[in-house]
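Hi D.,

Good news: the full-assembly prediction came through. Inputs first.
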Amino acid sequence: MIPQSFPDNRAVVARCADLTRLFGADGATVAAVDRITTEFRRGELTAVVGPSGSGKSTLMYLLAGLDAPTWGDVELDGYLLTDLDEPELAALRHERMGFIFQSFNLLPGLTAMENIRLPETLGRRRRPHDEPWLQQLIERLGLTELLARRPHELSGGQQQRVAIARALAHRPAVVFADEPTGNLDLATGGEVLDLLTELAHESGCGIIMVTHDPRAASAADRVLSIRDGHLVAELGRASAGEIAALMLADAIDAGATR
Ligand SMILES: Nc1ncnc2c1ncn2[C@@H]1O[C@H](COP(=O)(O)OP(=O)(O)OP(=O)(O)O)[C@@H](O)[C@H]1O
Ligand SMILES: [Mg+2]
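Then the structure:
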């Protein structure tokens, strides 16, 4: 692996400065992410909230190096992403990042355990998994009795817990989650989010979760609110009501300035 640019930054897992992504050309340019400067800490779940089209997914793709900024910088786990070429970015993603999606993205023909081990099996990771860590993670997620089942034999919440195990199996520095509870009912979604927050605290990885749902964001240690690509507010731990009120106030401000 390539040497880190900033090897001794322990508390911060990712940061971005003046991060901007423009789409389109000439008169029809959209700033999906507009001069965002912030940081994300290890051992914390940070929620990024905002309405549809506010730039949440674009921000996540930029932080993960899946898209390149128009200008601005991203530093992730000590690496300045603009210093890396595509194979180096791919290696960094496979070794240091995990991803969780709304649709679980499990392979239907494989058992839960085969799904969890899939990234390792594909041979893209040079390091084998830390087995005691993996066993502990599986127990922590309540999957011990379910490992031989295929996805269609699991509930939605169980499938998402398998996807979480897969995302954390290689001990990533940062996990990106895009609407991880979008396909779950309220109670199941709440349980999955509580587990995610506890795993961030226990494992020390930074989890960055994108959602438009104030209830989902209320499980987070920190909440960033974005609108029209701008970072408009930041909260510590907050209730769903407080987050909803913040999002509504931002919407009213945005309406008033149009
Ligand atoms: N590849 C692209 N080409 C052109 N415009 C894009 C592209 N990707 C995103 N956009 C635009 O950038 C803005 C932000 O989109 P983004 O997908 O980041 O929003 P979001 O907050 O994730 O929305 P949602 O909650 O619906 O997922 C939108 O106006 C969108 O239309
Ligand atoms: Mg999105």
